[in-house]
Prior knowledge:
Layout: H1 2-10, E1 14-16, E2 21-23, H2 33-47, H3 76-85, H4 96-110, H5 114-129, H6 131-136, H7 141-148, H8 150-167, E3 186-187, E4 196-197, H9 218-251, H10 255-285, H11 289-295, H12 302-311, H13 329-348, H14 350-376, H15 378-387, H16 395-419, H17 421-446, H18 451-478
Antiparallel strand pairs: 1-2, 3-4
Helix pairs in contact: 4-8, 4-17, 5-8, 9-10, 9-16, 9-17, 10-13, 10-14, 14-15, 14-16, 17-18
Amino acid sequence: LKExxxxxxxxxFRYNLSAKTFIAEGWCPDDELEKVTxxxxxxxxxxxxxFPVVFKAVPTTKETxxxxxxxxxxxxxxxxxxxxxxxAQYQEINPTVFSIITFPFLFGVMFGDVGHGIxxxxxxxxxxxxxxxxxxxxxxxxxxxxxxxRYIIVLMSLFSIYCGFMYNECxxxxxxxxxxxxxxxxxxxxxxxxxxxxxxxxxxxxxVDPAWKGAENELYYYNSLKMKMSVLMGVIxxxxxxxxxxxxxxxxxxxxxxxxxxxxxxxxxxxxxGYLCLLILAKWLMTWDDVIEDTNKAVPSLLSTLVNMxxxxxxxxxDGASEEIYGAQEGIQIFLxxxxxxxxPLMLFPKPFLLRRDHMERKGYGHLIEEGGEEDxxxxxxxxxxxxxxxxxxxxxxxxxxxxxxxxxxxxxxxNTASYLRLWALSLAHxxxxxxxxxxxxxxxxxxxxxPSMVIGFAVWGVLNFAVLMVMESLSAFL
Length: 479
C-alpha cells in the first residue's frame, strides 16, 4: 500500500526527458519552507542517490493559492465541520473562529439541563483522560466518532450546563438559589389559572424563576420565551455571516460585492428581521395589563404583525386584537417594507452590468495594446500577452448567477430564520421529555413506598435518560 501511494504521487510529477528528472510543483506556506528544504536534504542522504533533490521556491502572482488553515487537536474537529459545508477562499476570514463558540452554544440552547450536561461532561473528560491510550487502541465507529470530537463535546457539555442554569433545570427539577421558595413571591389564589407577579415587584436574580415550574401557564411561558430567543439568536448569527462577507469583500478590494451585495443584504435583513427582533425586545419590556384594560383587546401577536406587514401594511387591526405596539408603527413599517423591496433590485442588477462595463473597457484597452504591439514589434505584443490577458466574460452566465444568488438569499433569509426555531422546538421537547420521565417514572416509583419499585423505577429512569435524552436527543441537537 505504501509503494502504491508513492507511485500514485510520482504519477502527478512531470518528467523531463532531457534532464531525466521528475519535476513537481506545489504550494507550501512561507513559514514551512525550511522544513521542506530539510526534508529534501534528508531524503537525498537516506536514499544515497547521486542526484540530489533540488528544492526551489518559485514566486507567482497569477494563480490564487489554495486555502490553508493551521489546526491543532482542539480546532481540527471544528474545522472539519465547517469544511463540510464550504472552504473559505485564500485570505478570507475563517468562520471556524466563530463556530468554535456558536456551534456548541446553540447545542446548549437545545440541550440545556444541568444534570444532563454534567453527565456528558464526565463522559468526555474520561475520553480526554484516556486520550493517549485510545489513540493506540482500535475503537468502534460510534466511540471513535465521539473521541474525534471530544473537544467539541467538552464545550457542548459546558454550554449545556450554563443554559441549564439559565432555564433553572436539573433533570427537569427547578433549582432555587435565593434560599427561600420563589413561589411565595407570586399571587396564586384559588381558582386562578395564571400565576402573576405580586405587588412587591420581585425579580428572580438568576435565570428563569423556578416558580414557573408547575404553574398552569408554565408551558405557555416557556414556549413564548424559547421561541423568541431562538429568533433573536438566529438573526444575530445570520447578520454575523453577512458582516463577514462584507469584511471579505472590503479586504479583497471588491467594491461591487461590498456595495451591491453586502450593503443591500444587511439592510434587507435588518429592515425585516432586525425589526422583528426590536419588536420582541419591546414586547418583553412593556407591561400590557393597562393596555388590555383600556382597549379591551388581546396582546399583539408578533407573528401576525410580521405577516400583515406584507399583506396589509396600511392596517394594524387584527381579529379582536390591536397590532399596535408603539406610536407611528404603521408609517415605520411601510418605510421598512419599501426599503426591503428596493434592496432586491439593488442586489440583482447593478453588479452584472458594472462587470460587463469593466470587461468592455478592458477588451477595448486590449485592442489598443495589441495594435501598439504590432507597431512596436513582437516584444511589446508578448508583454501584453503576459500582463494584460483579458479573461472571458459571459454576461448571460453572470446575470443568471446573480439572479440565482439573489433569489437564494431572499428565500434563505426567510427559511433560515424559520429553521432557527428548531432551537425552541428541541429545547422544549428535551425539557418536556425530562419532566415526563421524572414525574411519571421516578416520582411515581417513589410514591409506591416500596424498595423494589424504587429500585426498578430508578433503573428505568436511568436507562431512558441515557438512551433517549443523552443519546437520541443529543444526536438530534448536534445535527
